[in-house]
Amino acid sequence: MSVTYHSSFARAEEAIRSAGKSWTAAAAEKVRRAAAERSPVDTGALRASWRVKKGEKQARVGSALPYAIYQEKGTGLYALSGGGRKTPWVYRDEAGAWHTTRGSQPRRMLERGYEREKTALRRLLENTLKEVIGR
Predict the structure, then answer these.
(1) Contact 76/84 with Cβ under 8 angstroms?
(2) In CA terms, which of 20, 41, 61, 96 is 20 to 30 Å from 130?
(3) Is residue 117 part of a domain?
(4) What is the pTM of this model?
């Protein structure tokens, strides 16, 4: 009597890897959209600047605008890290008017965008994995 064994491990592993990539890309896009929706709109540049950078096993959501981090984390007395400037300062705007500030409040568009989407991302992951294992 002869027994033949055929392994499906390689196919299953590839299916899981592919599903993981698909979920990661979809999840990052959801977070990107949520961050954009929460971005302040003056010129619209920040809202339009959010991008997804996809890697082999991860995706990153961010903005290349130099002021995006200050909108996210705040400045001066309001900086989330606590490391902002503790004294007021003055600056001159484009029209030539002088202003005094203690900093700006954090907007937390990215963080809150992720928090808003967290449950949907878990559900999406569950559904993606169910498709792979056939349940």
Answers:
(1) yes
(2) 61
(3) yes
(4) 0.82
pLDDT one-digit tens code per residue, 34-69:
999 999 998 999 999 999 999 888 999 999 999 999
Segments forming the whole domain that contains residue 105 = 9-130
Hey, which residues does 132 pair with through a beta bridge? Answer: none
- CA 92-110-44 angle, to 5 degrees, is 50
Helix (H) or strand (E) holding 89: strand 89-92
C-alpha gyration radius of the chain: 22
Q: Is 88 exposed, middle or buried (0-12, 13-18, 19+ CB in 10 A)?
A: exposed
Distances (CA, A) of 21 to 10, 15, 28, 65, 125: 17, 10, 11, 27, 11
Does a structural domain hold residue 86?
Answer: yes
